[in-house]
């Protein structure tokens, strides 16, 4: 029995015949590592698409393996940033340890910066933050932030609307600290979306935020176990905030939960030591 005409046409289909914009959309989905180490080497047409600055307006380093990659984390990021040719607007940096990486992405027209599990966050990053005047969203996961860095963001990032400073918290912690919450309330008056998962603030710090950040629409207080929302402050939150997440709400949508769960259990789960 002879194969149908449609089957023959499918067998003869050439991926290189796809429109360049369709190919670009497909390549964007395979991740930065595969583009730099594999896809761009397939053919001249694919290499041309992979070198198009528009391909690198958004850079996500979350898919870079800790081991096995031919290029280091910094080298990959540098290649990607260079290829954007000034068009970079959104970058996600995960588990990086190179002290020059943050400064390297400075002086771009960055609008969104996300960092997770960075092994340092100090004055070098503060210097970089001074160079992001168009930044609208800053997301930090499992990273310690200082008062100075909050003040820097407030001074040099006037367009910031979203701030996420998230880390795992735990019930029974004796540590209390309102410094960061107060710094946010005093310096980020135009903030609209705020996530402070695992923050050790008390009602004092939360009240400073509510009393000063009058444009605040969403507030995430999950695992903020040092606050008490059973009193009048809880009513103020419900009245003032359109979307409010409470200390005991689920962390199911926490984007880097898989990276922190084992550390969290080993550090805080008493059963692990019995």
From TrEMBL:
**Pfam (any one):** F-box-like
Q: Which Gene3D superfamilies match?
A: 1.20.1280.50, Ribonuclease Inhibitor (3.80.10.10)
Q: Which InterPro entries match?
A: F-box-like_dom_sf, F-box_dom, LRR_dom_sf
- Report a single Gene Ontology molecular function: SCF ubiquitin ligase complex binding
Could you name the domain of life of the organism this protein comes from? Eukaryota
Tell me which residues make up the F-box domain: 12-59
> What's the name of the protein?
Putative F-box domain, Leucine-rich repeat domain, L domain-like protein
Organism per entry = Helianthus annuus (Common sunflower)
């Amino acid at each position: 029995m002879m194969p149908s005409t449609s089957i023959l046409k499918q067998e003869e289909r050439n991926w290189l015949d796809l429109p360049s914009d369709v190919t670009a959309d497909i390549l964007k989905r395979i991740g930065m590592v595969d583009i730099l180490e594999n896809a761009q080497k397939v053919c001249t047409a694919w290499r041309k698409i992979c070198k198009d600055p528009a391909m690198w307006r958004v850079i996500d380093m979350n898919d870079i393996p800790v081991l096995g990659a031919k290029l280091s984390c910094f080298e990959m990021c540098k290649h990607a940033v260079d290829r954007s040719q000034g068009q970079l607007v959104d970058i996600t940096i995960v588990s990086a340890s190179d002290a020059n990486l943050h400064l390297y992405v400075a002086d771009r027209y960055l609008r969104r910066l996300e960092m997770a599990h960075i092994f340092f966050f100090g004055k070098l990053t503060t210097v970089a933050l001074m160079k992001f005047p168009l930044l609208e969203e800053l997301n930090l996961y499992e990273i310690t932030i200082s008062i100075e860095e909050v003040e820097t963001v407030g001074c040099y990032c006037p367009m910031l609307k979203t701030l996420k400073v998230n880390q795992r918290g735990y019930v029974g912690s004796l540590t209390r600290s309102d410094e960061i919450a107060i710094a946010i309330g005093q310096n980020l008056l135009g903030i609209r979306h705020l996530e402070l998962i695992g923050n050790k603030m008390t009602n004092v710090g939360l009240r400073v935020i509510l009393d000063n950040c009058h444009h605040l629409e969403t507030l995430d207080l999950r695992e903020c176990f040092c606050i008490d929302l059973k009193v009048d402050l809880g009513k103020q939150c419900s009245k003032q905030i359109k979307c409010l997440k409470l200390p005991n709400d689920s962390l199911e949508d926490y984007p880097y939960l898989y990276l922190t769960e084992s550390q969290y259990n080993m550090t805080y789960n008493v059963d692990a030591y019995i």
